Amino acid sequence: MKKNYDSNVKIFKALSDSNRLKIVDILSCGEKCACDVLEYFDFTQPTLSHHMKVLIDCGIVESRKEGLWSYYSLNTNNCNKVVLFTMNLFTDTDDCICKDNSKDECENI
Q1: Around 27, how many Cα atoms within 13 Å sit in the side-chain half-sphere?
Q2: CA dihedral of 78, 80, 82, 87, whole degrees rounded to 10
Q3: Whose C-alpha in 11, 25, 37, 84 is 20 to 30 A from the C-alpha of 77?
Q4: Tens digits of per-residue pLDDT, 30-66?
Q5: How big is the CA angle at 106 (ends 3 and 6), to the nearest 5 degrees?
C-alpha cells in the first residue's frame, strides 16, 4: 500500500481538535442532525458549523440538507482508509519507508 502522507495530513490536522474528535465519536453511532450534535457541546451553532466544515473538507464527514436541517454522518469509506493508513504507519511492513532502497540506489549514481 502506497502511503500518501500529504493527503492524510489534512485529516490528522482536522482530528487534532478535541471537539472534532468528540464529533466523530458522536457520529460513529450513526447520522445525526446538527441540533442533536450541538447538545453535547457548550458552544454556539456557528462554532459547530465551523467544526463540521473542517471535517467535511477533509473527507471524514458527509452532510445532507433536509429542509432547514443539516444532517451529518461519517464517510465510512474515507474513515476506513484513515484507519488502514494509520495501522500501516505504525506497523513494520514490506513497503515501509525505512526499507526503501531506491534512495540508496540514487546515491550510488
Answers
A1: 25
A2: -170
A3: 37
A4: 999 999 999 999 999 999 999 999 999 999 999 999 9
A5: 25
Closest CA to 41 of 11, 72, 18, 66: 18
* Angle of helix 45-57 versus helix 18-27 axis, rounded to 10: 80
Residue 91, all three cell numbers: 506497523
Q: What is the pTM of this model?
A: 0.83
Cβ pair 24, 72 in contact under 8 A: no
Residue 99: DSSP 8-state: G
What type of residue is 71? Answer: Y
Cell reading at 74: 461519517
- Strand, helix or coil at 74? strand
| Grid cell 531506491 in the structure block, residue | 102
Which amino acid does the sequence have at 23?
I
Cα 58 from Cα 8, distance rounded (Å): 9
